[in-house]
């Protein structure tokens, strides 16, 4: 029987300068990133959330928490709940059932990238210690940062002509980065006037102080809006021990690749020359962009402000387009011996999901099997449970086995027109489902992007990755059926495929989508339902919109 941990949160906008440029930032109780939730496996988390925005709705997703028995508190506006209106208080209540590193963030429109983010640390029961030891625990939450508002970006994506959000202005480590203010005078896309002050305390360099000889567990999470990242600490190795709440057979990296929606725990031993400090960097990979923010690893008792003797740029960064190295890390991640949950031997169903960039009525969109997703006005969970048969397109069966065999993934789509729908994928309760995420060329020649896919309500086994088009007769043989890691977020690489398997054993309605904020907004997602008849009666707090309006 766990403890009940109660939190009272107020979310609002405040002026802050996380990268020295002042803009509106969402804070939780005045903090950005929000407070860390610390709990033990089996505890119940109760968050009383007050929406103090003047004009915006909100909903908060507890990323990686499966919400077993509480599918209505998954926090996805349009899927599991009506949005929380300005001035309202909404109470989330759920059990954290597994130890590990998780995150929380807004799941309303593109609001996540305005700053409603934070971390969740769940410790195991004392009788089941973790299979590694460390002296101290530190959060390293990574984000990319834009100076335009969420509304401006979302409006651009939903306009004709299409206005792409572009690359972020900076990267933040624990909410702090550094924009080169002089760029505002020189670089055309950044010609915006505003307060940019390099001596603002909000953007002072993040200092991670370590005691020589001690071991640190860095809980690294990424909630970027767009960017895939590499994280590195000059002169130090990082030993990966956890991914998305599952223990990893330890392996060592110099550059940790991390996609939006993923968490990793790495062990850092302070075993280098203690008479100096070292650069900590993160950089964008898989897109040709550079905005390296730099933090400092400070060896106690050196002065935290003492500059490392090397240039900031001396920390070796991977090439942005080195897909092979990223794939190599993904392939190196295996479940830890002694903690392997073998996947079911066979699946009941295989769903191939072809990821394409398209147009729908002249609007630029992303589609899955040629269908671009949009939220209904009445959340699915309520519509399905209450049998509201005209709340969304119940008759529509998404093309689960869309014939992608003849689709040329290396070319721009021949016919780029897709359709749009709010139809869902209904899965037999307790069935085992394989999903093949198949990447393809975008609407630009010779271009394919990285997409981190996040599944709500479940963890899945990552069975395999590959380059090119998935080929059943060949690639099935390459699946890892022995010690695959379980995760909730996994990347599909440019022109590649990723295969995963999960058990549809959590009654509810669950979103499965690209964790790139603008891609989901542009339709890159689907919804799974299973076991709706096993969902107990819904709390009235999630209602009040669409057909649930009284
Ligand atoms: O969705 C996207 O749109 C742009 C580009 O494809 C538009 O031409 C881009 O880089 C995306 O990720």
Automatic annotation (TrEMBL):
Cofactors demanded by this protein: Cu cation
Superkingdom of origin organism: Eukaryota
Record-stated family: Belongs to the multicopper oxidase family.
Name of one Pfam family that matches: Cu-oxidase
Principal subcellular localization: secreted
E.C. number: 1.10.3.3
Species this chain originates from: Arabidopsis lyrata subsp. lyrata (Lyre-leaved rock-cress)
InterPro entries reported in the protein's UniProt record: Cu-oxidase-like_N (IPR011707), Cu-oxidase_2nd (IPR001117), Cu-oxidase_C (IPR011706), Cu-oxidase_fam (IPR045087), Cu_oxidase_CS (IPR033138), Cu_oxidase_Cu_BS (IPR002355), Cupredoxin (IPR008972), CuRO_1_AAO (IPR034259)
CDD domains per record: CuRO_1_AAO, CuRO_3_AAO
Recorded GO CC terms: apoplast
Name the record gives this protein: L-ascorbate oxidase
Keyword Secreted: yes
Reaction(s) catalysed by this chain's protein: 4 L-ascorbate + O2 = 4 monodehydro-L-ascorbate radical + 2 H2O
Plastocyanin-like domain span: 11-125, 140-300, 405-530
GO MF, one annotated term: copper ion binding
Compartments (UniProt record): Secreted
């Amino acid at each position: 029987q766990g403890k009940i941990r109660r939190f009272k949160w107020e979310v609002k906008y405040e002026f802050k300068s996380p990268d020295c440029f002042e803009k509106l930032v969402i804070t939780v109780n005045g903090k950005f990133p929000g407070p860390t939730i610390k709990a033990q496996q089996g505890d119940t988390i109760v968050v009383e959330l007050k929406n103090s925005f003047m004009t915006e709705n909100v909903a908060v997703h507890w990323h990686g928490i499966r919400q077993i028995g509480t599918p209505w508190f998954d926090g996805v506006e349009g899927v599991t709940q009506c949005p929380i209106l300005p001035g309202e208080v909404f109470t989330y209540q759920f059990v954290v059932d597994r130890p590990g590193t998780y995150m929380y963030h807004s799941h309303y429109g593109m609001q996540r990238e305005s700053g409603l983010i934070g971390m969740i640390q769940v410790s195991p029961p004392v009788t089941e210690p973790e299979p590694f030891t460390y002296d101290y625990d530190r959060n390293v939450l990574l984000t990319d940062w834009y100076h335009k508002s969420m509304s401006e970006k979302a409006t651009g994506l939903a306009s004709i002509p299409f206005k792409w959000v572009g690359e972020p202005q900076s990267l933040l480590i624990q909410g702090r980065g550094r924009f080169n203010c002089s760029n505002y005078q020189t670089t055309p896309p950044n010609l915006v006037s505003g307060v940019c002050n390099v001596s603002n305390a909000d953007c002072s360099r993040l200092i991670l102080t370590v005691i020589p000889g001690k071991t640190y567990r860095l809980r690294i999470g990424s909630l970027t809006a767009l960017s895939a990242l590499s994280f590195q600490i000059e002169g130090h190795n990082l030993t990966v021990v956890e991914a998305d709440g599952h223990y990893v057979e330890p392996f060592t990296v110099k550059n940790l690749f991390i996609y939006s929606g993923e968490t990793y725990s790495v062990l850092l031993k302070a075993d280098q020359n203690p008479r100096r400090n070292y650069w900590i960097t993160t950089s964008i990979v898989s897109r040709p962009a550079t905005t390296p923010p730099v933090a400092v690893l400070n060896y106690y008792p050196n002065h935290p402000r003492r500059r490392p003797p090397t240039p900031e740029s001396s920390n070796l960064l991977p090439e942005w387009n080195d897909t092979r190295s990223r794939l190599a890390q993904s392939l190196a991640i295996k479940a830890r011996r002694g903690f392997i949950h073998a996947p079911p031997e066979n699946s009941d169903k295989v769903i191939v999901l072809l990821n394409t960039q398209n147009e729908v009525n002249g609007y630029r969109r992303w589609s899955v099997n040629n269908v671009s997703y949009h939220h209904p006005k009445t959340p699915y969970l309520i519509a399905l449970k209450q049998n509201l048969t005209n709340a969304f397109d119940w008759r529509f069966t998404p093309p689960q086995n869309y014939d992608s065999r003849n689709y040329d993934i290396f070319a721009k789509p021949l016919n780029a027109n897709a359709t749009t729908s709010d139809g869902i994928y209904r899965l037999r309760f307790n069935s085992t489902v394989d999903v093949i995420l198949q990447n393809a060329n975008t609407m630009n020649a010779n271009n394919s992007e990285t997409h981190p896919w996040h599944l709500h309500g479940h963890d899945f086994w990552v069975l395999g990755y590959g380059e090119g088009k998935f080929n059943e007769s060949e690639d099935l043989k390459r699946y890892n059926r022995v010690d695959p890691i379980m995760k909730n977020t996994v990347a599909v690489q440019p022109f590649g495929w990723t295969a995963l398997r999960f058990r549809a054993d959590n009654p509810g309605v669950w979103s499965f989508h690209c964790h790139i904020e603008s891609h989901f907004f542009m339709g890159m997602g689907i919804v799974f339902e299973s076991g709706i008849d096993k969902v107990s009666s819904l709390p009235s707090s999630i209602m009040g919109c669409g057909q649930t309006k009284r």
